């Protein structure tokens, strides 16, 4: 492992890790010595019991924690898991909520929901999600799974593997999340569970055509037939989840940050947003085991969701467009400013997303002899998604021709700005449908852009076939061997269509020159009201218009044929052959129980992409050429894991591996958008690197996976009275890190034909044919390291009077440094990494009562958010702490036996989501307040 590029920092961090390990060993020794005291009130124990020694039957939260502890203890790998409290009942509102409580796992909130996970400080792009051990597609733009596409009622447990194993196909660098559905043959009796829950958002409906109320309902049926050789599990769910969002977004800050030229707000987009997510899902598992020699399982999952977002507000161009007056500043940062002549853009937008997710898997386990088994597994998953992203603009006149506004801007304590206008934005005699700033441009001439429509669609398809042969070994500690192969083909297609929307009337193609009307009156039928609550930012009222009424009645549309728009369509395909072999060890060494797995994977990849290369000549002629590229490469990934029981119920686990994760799929596209800047065609242009005539942006089919060399250690002590303590440490040496902003020089001589003869002569004579190509490349490397501590402790260990009370908590520290070839002196932090993460929950559960309060905290991190034109971008996210609580009761006997009532509350701290830029906490970019969410539900188990 090479670490010399860190200039000695690694040695200091190594010493830190060694000291941390010594502290960890001391802590374990103290716990071992104190174990008798902790368990003094515990009954006699049996080592094989699920709770670490006590043969006690528990349910609910305690059963979930005990099951998760059993999975963790018995696994050779370093793993954390969440188990269902009962059939169809994970312990939280969503899968992501549950996983975010595990050590080293954090969630990023989007639209008020926990959607994207970071494991050990690495963002969603560095992990892999499996369903019953099979890689899954996603309805998102790339590989990272959005966890709200999976109804949580369908899963028995969710495991997060933090070390690699040769048989774990498609494991990630950060970790692998494996969603596990229940198996009907494992259930003792027939079960029918019906659940219904009401939901309310703490914020009142922010838009007149929205609601803050929702519901969730599910049913699960499990049964066995044919002398318990055939099992069926069927589940259905339906939900309607509302959310409200007070949104503020800053364009950035003008000025230099000095007393003479302070930072002033460059522009802002305050909105109110109302969302409704409707989701319907179904799952079925058929399991057949007619004998000990054959076991077959078929799984099917379908999930459909539709999310509708209604956004209303005003865009205010400020410091980037208008001169500031009356500036009051502190430390080079404006706290109060006035702008005059401002032409704001009133927005009434609609985002409508529909997605379907299918997943099928068929697993067959065949015993070929006493010591030989064959397993064949086939799977197919497919996700489709279509978006309808509609923007509507109103203002006082086209291109700043109407009355201007005087805007008073004052910084608030939370870092955002109060924006107080002078004009009445509900006055339809002043405001009309138009292009207020005259921003509309089709690539060659102005258009009246009074609205805009984006309609992207995505299709992600993955087929996989796997065969495994494993056998037993009678040779001391050598337990078994396993060899196997897996073939998968994944294809992701992205198709885009966008349209300019302009007022009806004369003209063609929405162009100004053809006579397109520059404005039109707002139709009375489009007006829903004026009670949009933007008062939290100082705006008294804005018009609430019906976006679809405007789309259907007020506009002409013109297809967006700009090269940058036409070039977006692409398909990325990956065919992957994986072969692996491993040896399993299980026995005693020196009187100590040892489990181990040693193996390696060989991976052959064929990676290809189809798309377009687009350019526009100085004369406005758009040229589109098809493009295709294919590459192949191989990787060898060894891995070894060990679990040694040093003391009774006390384990040391070690892992060493080489892992990889493939780049974002949009980075592997072949498409290129070529630009020709005729302003740089000049004899005095002596620096084409700074003033290029030709330039291009796009993807890179040649991209290789990120790679990491990993060292992991975990020390775990399971208490006789239940619960455990664990401390883990890890180090990852990252190579082939993808730099998304990489740039290289390219000779664009083949495009000279797009220029006039005179222009060609100047370009050739002055050697101006070379220009930059901006495309991702594997030019980065670095490291990350960290520690995790977990404590699961039922309080009965201290006294039988505390039976039913308990605590589960974890904390982690992570650090990273990434350096790119384009800027080797600057150390970057990893997206998604919070240096400090902590969570804790206190619970009580006994005699049918259940009470739990949980809190999770993560420090500042680099989060992925939607930037200009919904393109993903990274910004620093302010530290946040989220408090959730629940209380419930399950009837134990009588006529109501099997009925449970549960009340839950999320985000009781009402913590907003805040981002900022340039490492300056004052430069707030996003502020989103989601409010609290409340749930009340009933579950009946027959």
Automatic annotation (TrEMBL):
Q: Keyword annotations for this protein?
A: Cell outer membrane, Membrane, Receptor, Signal
The record ties this protein, via CDD domains, to: ligand_gated_channel
Entry annotated with the keyword NAD: no
The cross-references to PANTHER family, in alphabetical order and at most eight, read:
PLUG DOMAIN-CONTAINING PROTEIN (PTHR40980), TONB-DEPENDENT RECEPTOR-LIKE BETA-BARREL DOMAIN-CONTAINING PROTEIN (PTHR40980:SF3)
Residue ranges of domain TonB-dependent receptor plug in the record: 72-174
Regions crossing the membrane: none
Pfam families in the cross-refs: Plug
Q: Where in the cell is it found?
A: Cell outer membrane
Q: What is this protein called?
A: TonB-dependent receptor
Domain of life from the UniProt record: Bacteria
Give the signal peptide as a residue range, or say none if absent: 1-39
What NCBIfam families has UniProt attached to this entry?
Answer: TonB-Xanth-Caul
> By its UniProt entry, which InterPro entries does this protein fall under?
Beta-barrel_TonB_sf (IPR036942), Plug_dom (IPR012910), Plug_dom_sf (IPR037066), TonB_rcpt_bac (IPR010104)
> Lineage of the source organism?
Bacteria, Pseudomonadati, Pseudomonadota, Alphaproteobacteria, Sphingomonadales
């Amino acid at each position: 492992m090479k670490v010399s590029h860190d200039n000695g920092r690694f040695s200091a961090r190594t010493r830190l890790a060694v000291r941390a390990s010594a502290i960890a060993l001391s802590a374990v020794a103290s716990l071992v010595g104190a174990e008798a005291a902790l368990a003094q009130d515990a009954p006699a124990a049996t080592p094989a019991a699920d709770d670490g020694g006590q043969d006690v039957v528990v349910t609910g939260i305690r059963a979930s924690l005990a099951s998760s502890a059993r999975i963790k203890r018995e696994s050779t790998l370093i793993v954390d898991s969440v188990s269902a409290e009962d059939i169809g009942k994970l312990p939280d509102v969503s899968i992501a909520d549950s996983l975010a409580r595990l050590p080293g796992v954090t969630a990023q909130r989007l639209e008020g929901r926990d959607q994207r996970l970071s494991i050990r400080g690495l963002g969603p792009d560095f992990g892999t999600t499996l369903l019953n051990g099979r890689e899954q597609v996603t309805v998102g733009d790339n590989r990272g799974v959005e966890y709200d596409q999976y109804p949580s009622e369908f899963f028995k447990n969710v495991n997060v593997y933090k070390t690699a194993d040769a048989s774990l196909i498609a494991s990630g660098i950060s970790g692998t999340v494996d969603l596990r559905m229940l198996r009907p043959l494992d259930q003792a009796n027939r079960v029918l569970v019906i659940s219904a829950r009401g939901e309310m958002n703490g914020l009142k409906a922010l838009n007149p055509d929205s609601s803050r109320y929702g519901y969730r309902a599910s049913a699960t049926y499990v049964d066995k037939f044919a002398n318990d050789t055939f099992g069926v599990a069927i589940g259905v769910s339906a939900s309607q989840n509302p959310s409200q969002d007070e949104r503020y977004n800053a364009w950035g800050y003008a000025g230099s940050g000095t007393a003479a030229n302070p930072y002033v707000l460059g522009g802002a987009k305050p909105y109110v947003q109302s969302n409704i997510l409707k989701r319907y899902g179904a799952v079925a598992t058929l399991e057949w085991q007619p004998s000990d020699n054959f076991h077959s399982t078929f799984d099917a999952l379908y999930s459909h969701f539709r999310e509708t977002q209604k956004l209303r507000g005003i865009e205010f161009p400020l410091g980037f467009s208008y001169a500031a007056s009356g500036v009051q500043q502190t430390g080079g940062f404006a706290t109060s400013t006035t702008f005059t002549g401002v032409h704001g853009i009133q927005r009434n937008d609609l985002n409508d997303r529909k997605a379907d997710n299918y997943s099928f898997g068929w697993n067959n386990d065949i015993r070929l002899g006493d010591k030989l088994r064959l397993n064949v597994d086939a799977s197919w998953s497919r996700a489709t998604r279509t978006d309808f992203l509609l923007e509507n603009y109103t203002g006082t006149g086209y291109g700043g021709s109407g009355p201007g506004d005087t805007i008073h801007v004052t910084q608030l304590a939370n870092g955002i700005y109060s924006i107080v206008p002078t004009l009445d934005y509900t006055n339809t005699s002043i405001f009309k449908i138009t292009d207020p700033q005259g921003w509309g441009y089709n690539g060659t001439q102005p258009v009246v852009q009074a609205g805009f429509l984006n309609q992207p669609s995505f299709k992600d398809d993955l087929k996989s076939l796997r065969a495994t042969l494993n056998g037993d070994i009678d040779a001391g500690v050598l337990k078994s061997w396993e060899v196997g192969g897996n073939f998968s083909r994944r294809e992701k297609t992205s198709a885009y269509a966008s349209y300019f929307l302009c007022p009806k009337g004369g003209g063609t193609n929405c162009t100004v020159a053809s006579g397109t009307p520059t404005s039109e009156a707002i139709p009375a039928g489009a007006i829903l009201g004026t009670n949009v609550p933007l008062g939290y930012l100082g705006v008294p009222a804005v018009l609430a218009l019906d976006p679809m009424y405007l789309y259907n009645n007020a506009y002409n549309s013109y297809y967006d044929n700009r090269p940058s728009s036409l070039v977006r369509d692409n398909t990325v395909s990956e065919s992957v052959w994986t072969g692996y072999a491993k040896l399993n060890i299980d026995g005693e060494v020196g009187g100590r129980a040892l489990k181990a797995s040693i193996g390696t994977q060989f991976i052959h990849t064929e990676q290809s992409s189809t798309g377009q290369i687009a350019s526009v000549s100085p004369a406005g002629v758009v040229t589109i050429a098809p493009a295709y590229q294919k590459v192949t490469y191989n990787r060898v990934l060894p891995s070894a894991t060990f679990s040694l029981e040093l003391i009774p119920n006390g384990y040391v686990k070690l892992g060493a591996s080489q892992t990889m994760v493939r780049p974002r799929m949009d980075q592997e596209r072949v498409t290129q958008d070529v630009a020709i800047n005729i302003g740089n065609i000049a004899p005095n242009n002596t620096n084409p690197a700074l003033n290029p005539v030709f330039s291009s942006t796009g993807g890179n089919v040649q991209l290789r996976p990120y790679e990491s060399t990993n060292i992991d250690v975990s020390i775990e002590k399971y208490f006789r009275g239940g619960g455990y303590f664990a401390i883990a440490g890890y180090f990852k040496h990252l190579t082939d890190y993808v730099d998304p902003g990489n740039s290289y020089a390219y000779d664009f001589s083949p495009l000279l034909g797009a220029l006039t003869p005179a222009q060609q002569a100047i370009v050739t004579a002055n050697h101006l044919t070379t220009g930059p190509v901006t495309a991702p490349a594997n030019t980065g490397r670095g490291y990350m390291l960290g520690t995790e501590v977990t404590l699961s402790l039922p309080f009965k260990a201290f006294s039988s009077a505390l039976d039913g009370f308990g605590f589960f908590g974890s904390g982690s520290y992570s650090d990273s440094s990434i350096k790119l070839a384009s800027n080797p002196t600057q150390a970057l932090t990893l997206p998604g990494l919070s240096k400090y993460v902590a969570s804790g929950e206190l619970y009580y559960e006994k005699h049918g009562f259940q009470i739990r309060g949980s809190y999770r905290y993560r420090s500042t991190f680099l989060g992925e958010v939607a930037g200009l034109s919904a393109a993903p971008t990274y910004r620093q996210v302010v530290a946040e702490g989220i408090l959730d609580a629940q209380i419930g009761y399950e009837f134990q006997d009588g006529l109501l036996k099997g009925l449970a009532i549960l009340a839950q509350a999320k985000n009781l701290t009402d913590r907003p989501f805040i981002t900022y830029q340039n490492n300056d906490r004052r430069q707030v970019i996003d502020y989103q307040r989601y409010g609290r969410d409340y749930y009340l539900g009933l579950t009946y188990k027959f």
